[in-house]
Amino acid sequence: MKITQEIDQCKHVSSKSDSGYVIIVSVILIEYITIVPMSAFGILYGQFLASVGDETTGTEVVLGTFIATMSFTGIIASPLLQKYTYRTVGLIGIFIFSLGAFIEIFSSIFYMFVFCAFMKGIGYGILDPTSYSVLNSHFDRKYSVVMGILHGVISIGLILCSMIMTYLVENFGFWKTLCIQSAITLLGFPAVATFNLRKNYKTSKKLETSQTHPSSEVDLDLQRYSLLDDSKKERRRRSTIVNENFIPVILTEETSASVSESGIKNWLVNTVGLKWFLLPKYMNIAVGLAVTWSCEASFSSLLRVNLNNLNYSSYDIAKMSMVFFASDLLAKLCFSVVSGLCLINNRYLFLVTMLLLSLSRTAFTFRDGYVWRTITLTLVGLLNGLMNTSLVLVISQQYKENFATPFCLYKLLTGMIYLITGGVAKTIPLLQRDTVEL
User: Fold this and answer.
1) Residue-range definition of the domain harbouring residue 402
2) What's the CATH number where 167 sits?
3) 107 Cβ contact partners less than 8 Å away, ≥ 6 residues apart
4) Total domain count for the chain?
5) Helix, strand, coil percentages for the chain (3-state, nearest 5)
6) pLDDT tens figures, 388-412
7) How far is Cα 411 from Cα 133, in angstroms, rounded to an integer?
8) Mean pLDDT over all residues of the chain?
9) Whole-number Å distance between alpha carbons of 44 and 50
10) Neighbour count for residue 212 (Cβ, 10 Å)
11) d(Cα 107, Cα 105) in Å, to the nearest integer?
């Protein structure tokens, strides 16, 4: 009876609590001071990068460094979330991100900006899974509504950020705007301070009893595919053992090396969570999410460039981009309303949205007319909003009690696929150019 009460105390906080809504505001603030300004990267850094070299190449390198680092940091965030509280992990993330932002103020060469993008990528790579894990722990059925509102407010920030950044650069210049942006990142500290002190459920000793009676399909799968059945025995080994006469015997170098190797393997498989890669169902979901997000990121980031290469005027590009982002915002707000009225299976929604999104992007390339491209961009924007909102919910709905580790490993897969798709996208034009020259 006592154990049951302790387990109940460690369950998720009710969504009706006031702290849950404070967490929503905090997460929105964190997104506004970290990832939203990256949407206006070219406006802020464009002239500086052009003065030190090629603006296009410099933008690709800096943004690519940030995205890749952010994704691969999942391998660090997963063990941190298992060992420390959400608040502690969040403070680590915002500290690293703010440090990278302030170092940028004193940077005068291109490689320093790449290094700062690397630091900010690590910081945001820790903050992102922490923020979603906190939301996941505070909300249950209303989590879909919360995600719709969250992404809708972020979309508003993405739309307004370009105008605000243009105003700051024109009136204050590059370096002062950089100082303002760096100072704003300090708001992340009080925002992260609102995160609850509760540790991830895996680290709570009160829940260890539930491992002997798995109550979900995930627990059964993890036991079935466990790679270290004798991990407890390995952890009990020490540098000395006791023989039959109770005389300490020193282990040989080979035995010590074996114990060390076993410890590293145990850390990678259990603490980092690489054993999840042995679950076919999880791999199917994670790879699908990672591939879809990588394609979306490539399409959205290169939208203005592609429209400019198609010889559209700046005015037409601005209108088409506004239609795209407005459709994205409308879809997220509609998703929030509908999910509040009925229960949505986010996995099926994501699957249908992904298929329709692929067809819409393909249709975008079929014709060159302004009206046709505007209509297809509207469809892409609507489907893009649904896809982005339901992406995190797919993991939350399937792995509610194990959210942090599956999400971090999904980010790791995203980084790998993003690097592969980015390399292929850059190789194809080079091959085409060589073919034309031949």
Assistant:
1) 13-201+277-433
2) 1.20.1250.20
3) 113, 115, 116
4) 1
5) 80, 0, 15
6) 888 888 888 888 888 888 888 888 8
7) 13
8) 75
9) 11
10) 6
11) 6
